[in-house]
Amino acid sequence: MAVRGTLLLPQFLLPVRPAGTVLEHHALRMVGDRIDALLPAEDALVRFPEDLQVALPRHVLMPGMINLHTHSPMTLLRGVADDLPLAQWLQDHIWPAEQRLVTAQFVADGTRLAMLEMLLSGTTCFNEQYFFPEVIAREARAFGMRASVGVPIINVATPWADGLQACLARAEALMETVADDPLVDACLSPHAPYTVDDHALQEVAALAVAGQVQISMHVLETAAERVQHEQTHGMGPLARLQRFGLLGPDFLAVHMVHPDAEDMQRLADTGTQLAHCPKSNLKLASGICPLPQLLAAGLNVGVGTDGAASNNRLDLLEEVRTAALLAKGSSGDATAVDAWQALDMVTINGARALGKETQLGSLEVGKIADLAALELQAAATQPLHQLHSQLIYSASSSQFSDVWVAGERLLKDRQLTRFHADQLLAEAALWPARFRGDASVGPSL
Amino acid sequence: MAVRGTLLLPQFLLPVRPAGTVLEHHALRMVGDRIDALLPAEDALVRFPEDLQVALPRHVLMPGMINLHTHSPMTLLRGVADDLPLAQWLQDHIWPAEQRLVTAQFVADGTRLAMLEMLLSGTTCFNEQYFFPEVIAREARAFGMRASVGVPIINVATPWADGLQACLARAEALMETVADDPLVDACLSPHAPYTVDDHALQEVAALAVAGQVQISMHVLETAAERVQHEQTHGMGPLARLQRFGLLGPDFLAVHMVHPDAEDMQRLADTGTQLAHCPKSNLKLASGICPLPQLLAAGLNVGVGTDGAASNNRLDLLEEVRTAALLAKGSSGDATAVDAWQALDMVTINGARALGKETQLGSLEVGKIADLAALELQAAATQPLHQLHSQLIYSASSSQFSDVWVAGERLLKDRQLTRFHADQLLAEAALWPARFRGDASVGPSL
């Protein structure tokens, strides 16, 4: 007897690959966690009469989006310190708050809130960097979301680890824990060139090779970073990272707002991956990343929202819209980063940056069924002249109605299937009082 | 017997004036189309026991937002030509399409779609500029939305008018029609310095004075405009407008992306009003308006979405968020345009730009009850550390649940009260086929 699958029957399919394709009245067949077939809806109904059918009559079905950089637990610090430059924001507000508040419970509550926001807005996979990564990994597994969980590597003591050796030990432990996990990967996240010393970089490079894991790091987020780095190390951040053999396809450089010509060459020569976070860079006045030049150099660039304390939304659709508009406005070229390129950035480019191009990022037979359906029957997306343009320039992330991760429908008609959104929001709502030091709500455990 | 009013009972009130104020557990009392009182909810329930009560337990109530610049009917051309520079977009795509399609029906259908999108996203008043303004005025009145309807003044013949005299005659007619209209005003909208000759500017100046109406005009949207204008007229656009006495508090200069030092002085000296349209300027690669400098010069700047063919959303909350982020990123100053200033830009500054500061733009006793309620119980706006910050940097416009114009609740729990959204969307959905020249859907009448 034939295997029973599920037929998703959307009005439109945006498979991302082949590039520039829109399929109308086609079905996507899922079997288990995989995409089994893409074919005309009529044929699908004849060939697979036993399949479960999911009607999406006014929807476009696309790959779930991939958020290449976030700090999920920081959703609990959303809006505590806005309209400030990065250094002051970090040193006077965020770091002190984290010293006071960050615990396993903070990380668990904040991660659940972040995953709720991301799932509701069409994101199925996120590349994470925060303390208590083992808690984040556990919460992602429980939530059913795909995550690349970065273990922070930093020389200073934190509420989570008392220094480099502790970070490295916990990295090895997490790598072992998630070794066979279908949803969660571990990666190494040295914080930034200005917070990680040479010895730590050596250890990171060795551990990444030994464990065959990716590395994700903030690099050249501000212009000051290069100046300070040259004073301290006698060279720019990328030159130093290259000396330790860190640059390459397994290294994700986050932000990259201020590369010079030499840096661009280094990035291109090594095939280093890039995560662009335009809204965070604007809000902290870090600058405007030269996205068109990076793409012209043949680099693979995906998009990250950064944490909610500096964005303040984990909305990848608004993020990539901002990336496309900002690229045009800052370069003076309205053709820069068109809607198709923008769609690639939040799907296939993100998959490639995480080393998962063969598994994720497009709707192709054999790939994993991480999917998002957006309802088109809304004022902002009517009338429908060009689907890809409506999605990137017009749609609101609130139009995502259904999301599947590894073939499981985690969002059904805008409702979570595993959790109750109100409960997650209620957990989060306790934190402002804890932030203010109000003992009545109880300590963070 | 006492007059029966309506008590709105939100969790929070953002009155905008006094500046920086957040009121918790307060009531806003409406009587007719006016704000009658703002007082603690407890007191309100005692003082006005007979009033109709509207519970908004998880909402913030704020002034309805004011969209200072749009071309509503262009919603029907949303996405027909993206990723193109302004001149090519206008001359090769938009103008030819308009020549073919623009009729009274096009304008009526497109205006209804635009008002649906604006109302759903918390906008209660829009400053319009498009052909068939008499149709737009009629549709706004029927929809119940507040509008300042600009009559296009342009020397070339259009599908609506065969030249300057026809434009002026229709302007006078519309001014007479709406003379006593509580919702709709007429204004004059000479298109741009490069499409309106000296004689037309003279006529506009005279008619504006005679009819005591405002003038709204695209000015310095691109760098090329200044160069061409200096070649044609021997002076920059603002110098020429000033020669005809057009600059001043009744003149709204839209875009103003490329003012030089002399222009800044002219704008400040005359108290000319400004409409900033950041997303349209980015998308068409027109440039980045020096918003922080304009504000520092003491100018009054509001926000416009521009038309949906160049934005492509009429979402004023996302627009002002972009304005604030872009101001920080482009100026290198993270303190530029903070959340309070951003809130002012879409409320009181917009009202001032339309000469309605005493009537609109803040929640003050005696002002008109144009209101919007945004539901805060959503992933993107929890937890709630700082209300104004959550609204500007985190909230989605889809969180607006209820909107009142002149005291009438036009949006109730996200549903229109006067129209059916699906019917408006169905009307709009016919236009792509007409755009493609498909006769089967019938001509545009």
The pLDDT mean of chain A sits at 96
Distance between the termini of chain A: 52 Å
Number of domains of chain A: 2
Q: Helix segment count of chain A?
A: 17
Number of strands of chain A: 17
Q: What is the percent of helical residues of chain A?
A: 25-40%
Beta-strand content of chain A = 15-25%
CATH H-level superfamily title of the largest domain in chain A: Metal-dependent hydrolases
Q: At CATH's second level, what is the architecture of the largest domain in chain A?
A: Alpha-Beta Barrel
Shape of chain A: globular
Q: Enumerate the spans of chain A where pLDDT stays under 50 for 5 or more consecutive residues.
A: none
Rg of chain A, Cα atoms, Å: 21 Å
The most extensive interface between chains reads: A-B, 71 and 72 residues
CATH topology description of the largest domain in chain A: TIM Barrel
Written account of the structure:
2 copies of one chain form a homodimer. Chain A is α/β, with parallel strands linked by helices and 445 residues long. The first copy, chain A, has 2 domains: 6-63 and 363-421, Urease, subunit C, domain 1 (Roll); 65-353, Metal-dependent hydrolases (TIM Barrel, Alpha-Beta Barrel), CATH 3.20.20.140. In chain A, 38% of the residues lie in helices and 22% in strands. The first copy, chain A, is built from 17 helices and 17 strands. The first copy, chain A, has helices at residues 41-47, 86-101, 104-120, 133-143, 164-177, 198-211, 223-233, 237-243, 261-270, 278-283, 291-296, 316-331, 339-345, 348-353, 387-394, 421-429, 431-435, and strands spanning 6-13, 23-24, 26-31, 34-40, 52-63, 65-70, 123-129, 146-153, 184-190, 215-219, 251-255, 273-276, 301-303, 371-375, 400-405, 408-412, 415-416. In chain A, the strands form 3 sheets. In chain A, strands 1, 2, 3, 4, 5, 14, 15, 16 and 17 form a 9-stranded mixed sheet that branches. The first copy, chain A, has a 4-stranded parallel sheet with strand order 6-7-8-9. A 4-stranded parallel sheet of chain A has the order 10-11-12-13. In chain A, helix 12 packs across helix 13 (339-345). The model of chain A has no long low-confidence stretch (mean pLDDT 96). Chains A and B meet through helix 3, helix 10, helix 12, helix 15 and helix 16 of A and helix 3, helix 10, helix 12, helix 15 and helix 16 of B.
